[in-house]
Amino acid sequence: MFLCSANDFITIFVAPECFSLCSYLLSGYTKKDVRSNEATMKYLLMGGASSSILVHGLSWLYGSSGREIELQEIVNGLINAQMYNSPRISIALVFITVGIGFKLSPAPFHQWTPDVYEGVQFVREISTSLYISEMFGFFKSSWTCRREMLSPLGRRQNFYLFK
After folding, report:
1. Residues 45-81 as b or e (16 or more Cβ within 10 Å = b)
2. Which PANTHER family would you find in this protein's record (predicted)?
3. What are phi and psi of 8, to 5 degrees?
4. Which residues neighbour 120 within 8 Å (Cβ) at sequence distance 6 or greater?
5. SS3 84
6. Are residues 59 and 126 in the same domain?
7. Does 107 reside within a domain?
8. Would you give the distance in Å from CA 137 to the centre of its chain?
9. Is 155 helix (H, G, I), strand (E, B) or coil?
10. How many domains does one find in the chain?
11. What's phi and psi for 122, nearest 5 deg?
12. In the structure, what pLDDT confidence band is assigned to residue 55 with cuts at 50, 70 and 90?
């Protein structure tokens, strides 16, 4: 949410880092599990690499725009200087897109995500608990439907209770 409402470079950099910090802590939750340690190291290295790519793109854009930090001022400066078709701006935007892409792991940048999620025990526990709760929900709903279908007076009794 902070990344969507960002108005300057600092917020664009700090918002994914705050999100990633919590994820680093959750992925390294179990210290003695080898798979969890491997997943945490992969996640930390990919996060560091993507942060450096993002900062590199932001610095290219900062230097090209006349040392402005706010996004509206950058756009106004690039339009006034007629640098919006410059290859520097294209390179900066590519670096920023790749940096944020590896942080958020959308479709072309998601190759590392399944490997990290496989090693994290916390994710395995949550997915197992969701699966079990869905099974119990299915059994509960099927039992309720079966009880109402077999009870000839079930609907009539409930109707009189709520009247």
Report:
1. ebbeebbebbbbbbebbbebbeebeebeebeebbeee
2. NAD(P)H-QUINONE OXIDOREDUCTASE SUBUNIT 2, NAD(P)H-QUINONE OXIDOREDUCTASE SUBUNIT 2 B, CHLOROPLASTIC
3. -145, 170
4. 26, 27, 29, 36, 39, 40
5. coil
6. no
7. yes
8. 28
9. helix
10. 2
11. -60, -40
12. very high
* Residue 83 token pair: 């640098």
What is the residue range of 40's domain? Answer: 9-119
Separation between Cα atoms, residue 68 and residue 74, nearest integer Å: 6
By three-state DSSP, how is residue 106 classified? coil
Residue 2 lies in a domain: no
Unique residue bearing structure tokens 């520097």: 88
Model confidence at 163, in pLDDT bands (50, 70, 90)?
A: very low
Averaged pLDDT for residues 12-24 = 84
Read off the pLDDT of residues 96-150 as tens digits, 9 standing for 90 and up.
999 988 888 888 878 887 778 777 766 666 655 555 555 555 555 555 555 555 5
Same domain (yes/no): 139, 79: no
44 and 98 assigned to the same domain: yes
Q: How far is CA 95 from CA 61, 64, 88, 102, 158, in A?
A: 10, 14, 11, 11, 63
Claim to verify: residue 111 and residue 131 sit in the same structural domain: no
- Are 92 and 141 in the same domain? no
Query: Which residue has tokens 């959308």?
Result: 106
Residues 69 and 82 in one domain: yes
1 belongs to a structural domain: no
Q: Which of 144, 141, 47, 146 shows the shortest CA–CA distance to 100?
A: 47
